[in-house]
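Example record

One chain of 321 residues, shown exactly as stored in the release files.
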Amino acid sequence: MKRPVTDIAVVILCLFAVTTAVAQDSVRRTPWGDPDLEGIWTNATLTPLQRPPELAGKEFFTAEEAAQYRRTRIEQTNADRPLPPGQVGAYNDAFFERGTTLVRSGRTSLVVDPPDGRIPELTPDAQRKVEARRKRETASPADTPEDRWLTERCILFGATVPMLPEPYNNNYRIIQSPGYVTILVEMNHDVRVIPLDGRPHLAAGVHQWIGDSRGRWEGSTLVVETTNLKFNHQSRFGVGYLNGLSDERLKVTERFTLTDARTLTYRATIDDPTVFVRPWTVELPMQRTEGPLYEVACHEGNYGMFNILSGHRAEERQSTR
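Predicted structure tokens for this chain:
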């Protein structure tokens, strides 16, 4: 006798529910019942943020292609290789920490949406602002410290929110307590204290360099929404590939999911409608790593800033002779 289709559907649903419950129960939890994400994690990877033009239309590497691309990336980013005449180096490879592997999924970019793996175009108004800033930088690159990038001033880097890989210092420590998740960022020792109690964001007129983060649990996934970020014409993210531009309407939605005991999948959607023509999303695995985390004592009163400003004054004196 055949079992009715409806009975089969009920059995499948029951099995799915049991499997889901088992998966939920298998997640390690804190003493107060939240999924346990505590530990030290790294997002260092050789996978580029955007899909390179030569890989257009190719979402995933084959195993052979991934091995070759990994070798190529290591060669290209070797800071100890000889420089062409006239070029000046900075840190050598002893300082960099880009990682030695590509993401396990085999994707050719960290950007997973749009499907082409590229950051969307700027809006026409944003593009005009970028061009105006470039002209201003050409005319007055170092009149005051405020003319320089936030990274040079040790104020903000791109590793905080969203948590994008930097050339080095790609480690994070997650600490949990009842009602809060705290993320200590190795780069520039920023700390994000994220309440989970449903409180509203700060008033719209209150802006902070790393924004105002609010978190919640969706099953075993930590969802964090960040608004109220502070901006100027230089760079919210502190890195050139975003054209150094964003505004107070930026919202970043992050999702942290423990995939296995040693992998935390990180997914972030950047929504800034006055800057980008559409939202875009990155995804990368963060791997558990050994500690401890040491302080990165970057500070604005560094020799670099002094030399940038004094060097520009010398160029001005030379040009007036």
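Notes: The beta strands are 39-42, 111-113, 171-177, 180-185, 191-195, 212-218, 221-227, 251-260, 263-271, 280-288.
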